[in-house]
Specification:
single chain, alpha/beta, TIM Barrel, eight-stranded parallel sheet, two-stranded parallel sheet, 14 helices, binds iron/sulfur cluster
């Protein structure tokens, strides 16, 4: 039997595909085949012609970072002249701007600031949550959490406990890029190792907070490195009982940084999105990135994605060449053209359980 037929049989029988299958699909399947298979996998969780979205802002509370990733266009070192660290009032001004757009979600994203301790974050998050009870917050990324625990000299379990006790609900999977140690050594040796990242994320889940998964493609990563990312993520999601709420993939923007290069075409992004949906059978929500692909991102709704953000601001990607449009009607028209009904949603529960038995997340 041809390889493609074997893969299709596995998918229709509800069996997970292998990493070799995923590599084959990416290299050999037609766009039509990928779209069809990814839509089949999406329909296990969602109506195929249905999508959801949130209006959201990413608040970049500081641009100080000592990790020095070569693909980053955003960071400044502590001694640079154009550094900033927003105070609570300045953060709230940004949140007020989002509220005017009808937004419901704020994601905080900064850098590895050597002077910020885990208690500083907990204090900020606690203040904004009490001030905006109707909003949801993605308070930190796993990468920032890891660094903050290290400089605060607390274990990941203790750091997660401090955040959870202050009311923090989400420490999301941002900052993952490509989860492969050779990629990490090439481009961001000061950030984290793959094993350490999952170790920290498990502590976050253990403390009762929610988390998500992300991936960024289009640097110089090999297909094997991309597959390593998906493979380690699927295994982690199995281990934690399907708790991660979503997977978001976006594309590297090559402007104003040391690495440079060229942006990958939309067609490659859509193909990878489809492969991700098909391979990540244990992740319910696959999200497409308006932040980096603008209206083209909505084409991803035909390649397995079921959800997206309408962002109002994010300095990190804009510094790297992304553009943000506030013409939401125009973006949503793309969904209508695809005959997909996109509706604004509320925030998701902190965790999903996909397995009948909850896992034991003890250390
Ligand atoms: S990608 Fe994040 S961790 Fe890396 S330099 Fe930029 S802000 Fe720092």
């Amino acid at each position: 039997m041809a390889i493609m037929d074997q893969i299709e049989q596995k998918i229709s029988a509800g069996l997970p595909i292998s990493r070799q299958d995923a590599g084959f699909l990416f290299l050999e399947a037609t766009d039509e085949q990928l779209s069809r298979l990814a839509t089949f996998m999406k329909s296990r969780f969602h109506d195929a012609d249905h999508a959801t979205y949130l209006i959201m802002a990413i608040v970049n509370y500081t641009n100080v970072c000592v990790a020095k990733c070569d693909y980053c266009s955003f960071f400044r070192l502590p001694h640079d002249k154009d550094t900033y660290l927003l105070n609570t009032e300045q953060v709230c001004e940004k949140i007020d701007s989002l509220v005017k757009f009808g937004g419901k979600l704020v994601g905080f994203n900064g850098g590895f600031h050597p002077k910020l301790r885990i208690h500083d974050y907990a204090e900020l998050f606690s203040q904004v949550r009490s001030r905006y009870p109707d909003l949801e917050f993605y308070e930190m990324t796993v990468a920032e959490f890891m660094f903050s625990c290290k400089v605060s000299k607390v274990s990941y379990d203790d750091g997660a406990k401090i955040l959870a006790e202050s009311g923090t609900r989400w420490v999301t999977g941002g900052g993952a890029e490509i989860m492969d140690n050779s990629f990490r050594k090439r481009h961001s040796p000061g950030k984290f190792s793959v094993e350490d990242y999952y170790f920290a994320q498990e502590a976050i889940l253990r403390a009762g907070m929610g988390s998500t998964a992300t991936m960024v493609i289009g640097f110089d990563e090999s297909l094997e490195e991309r597959l390593n990312h998906l493979e380690s993520l699927r295994a982690f999601q199995d281990r934690v009982g399907g708790t991660l709420a979503s997977f978001l993939c976006w594309t590297y923007k090559p402007w104003n940084n040391q690495l440079g290069g060229e942006e990958i075409p939309t067609s490659e992004y859509l193909r990878w999105l489809a492969v991700s949906r098909i391979y990540l059978h244990n992740i319910r929500n696959i999200r497409t990135s308006v932040l980096t692909k603008n209206t083209d991102a909505l084409l991803g709704l035909k390649f397995g994605a079921n959800d997206f953000d309408l962002p109002t601001e994010d300095e990190v990607t804009q510094k790297a060449g992304a553009t943000i449009s506030h013409d939401f009607e125009n973006i949503l028209q793309t969904a209508k053209n695809l005959k997909i009904r996109a509706v604004q949603r509320d925030s998701w529960p902190v965790r999903f359980w996909h397995q009948s038995k909850k896992p034991n997340l003890s250390p």
